Amino acid sequence: MNKNYYAIIMAGGIGSRFWPISRTSHPKQFIDILGTGKTLIQNTYERFLKVCPKENIYVVTNENYTSLVKKQLPDMGDDQILTEPVMRNTAPCVAYGCFKIESLNPDAAIVVAPSDHLILDENAFISAIEKSLQTASAHDCLITLGIKPSRPDTGYGYIQYTDNALKNDFFKVKTFTEKPTLEIAKTFLQSGDFLWNAGIFIWSGKAIVKAFGQYLPDMNEIFADARAVYNTADEKKHIHNAYQQCTNISIDYGIMEKADNVYVLPSEFGWSDLGTWASIYDLADKDYVGNAVIPSEKVIMYDSSNCMVNVPGEKLVILQGLHDFIVVESNNSLLICPRDQEQNIKQVVADVKQKFGTKYI
Q1: Residue 239: its pLDDT value, please?
Q2: CB neighbours (10 Å) of residue 347?
Q3: 73, burial (CB in 10 Å: exposed 0-12, middle 13-18, buried 19+)
Q4: Mean of the pLDDT values across residues 82-92?
Q5: What is the CA radius of gyration of the chain?
């Protein structure tokens, strides 16, 4: 296993679209949301054990989730859990992890990935990551993985690429587009040169540090100034102070959309970002009338179809005459809403917070 290969798992989000199961105190990456016996972050960590040595895997998360990470990933050392005092989007957490690793090992090649994605074809995923790490080590480039789209989905970002290729596999990125309308998504699919943006990045430590210097100089200064304290007892205090100065900006917007050395590897490995209950429904086992019930021990359904049901295993639940609904209960809260209106859940969470405070959030 290559000692120069590193992985950074981003695990700081609160997963509000999965309320009431996902809570601020226990978000979705720490939940076995698919009923597989392992949480999403545990699955992500185990995948990267096949790519790099376990001491080379880092998790960046909110300070409040430190104990959850330690409990679910007991093999991780304290120095591998990088904590953020506040949420500042993905650019600062990428900078923190990459500057720390690059100061440890200037020859590092790094993969950065979210903690809460589903990968069905693990072998294909590992092959794509290893190929990308090799290319990133040999070339001054920033690589992202693009998923070949199977439908005009409006919930994903899109990457357009050109015929200009590196090693015949990695194509020069032309444009990034945030979540498009359905009509635009359809034209993207028809054109054949668009991929879904998986939010998985691969680069050398040198290349990403250089990119921060070019495109986010203020943030570059913050994390470059911390070189003297990385991997020392003063690191946490220094970084927590420095975070307050960081701009709230994504790595996509801050660097990937601006850099001229970005390449995409078209990939297929059974990927889903598990961003909504609809994505869970699509992946779950269903009965003959389309109901997905997790867990299903004590749920009885009459004249009901195409429902997504997730309730506590010990609770007896009877549903009658319900079609195309989401029914979720957890943490003393019950959500029942039409499947085609689940985009309102974020607003529901905001309303609950305003009316009842943070008790139910």
Answers
A1: 96
A2: 10
A3: buried
A4: 95
A5: 21
Predicted TM-score (pTM) above 0.70: yes
SS3 track for 154-206: CCCCEEEEEEEEECCCEEEEEEEECCCCHHHHHHHHHHCCEEEEEEEEEEEHH
Task: Give the CA diameter of the chain.
Answer: 65
Q: State residue 247 phi and psi, 5-degree precision.
A: -70, 145
DSSP 21-54: TSBTTB-GGGS-TTSSSS-HHHHHHHHHTTTS-G
Which DSSP helix (H) or strand (E) runs through 137?
A: helix 122-138
Q: Give CA separation, 188 vs 44, 63, 149, 269, 338, in Å.
A: 30, 40, 9, 21, 29
Q: Are 86 and 243 in contact (CB under 8 A)?
A: yes
pLDDT tens digits, one per residue of 170-208:
999 999 998 888 999 999 999 989 999 999 999 999 999
User: Given CA atoms 63, 67, 72, 76 in this order, what sign does their dihedral have?
Assistant: positive
Length of the chain (residues): 361
What gap in Å lies between CA 62 and CA 87, rounded to an integer? 7
In 56-151, the DSSP E strands lie at 57-62, 81-84, 109-114, 118-119, 142-147
Structure confidence at residue 168 as a pLDDT band (50, 70, 90): confident
Angle between helices 205-215 and 90-104 (to 10 degrees): 130
> And the tokens for 291?
């109901």
Contact assessment for residue 328 and residue 21, using Cβ atoms and an 8 Å cutoff: yes
Burial class (CB in 10 A: 0-12, 13-18, 19+), 189: middle
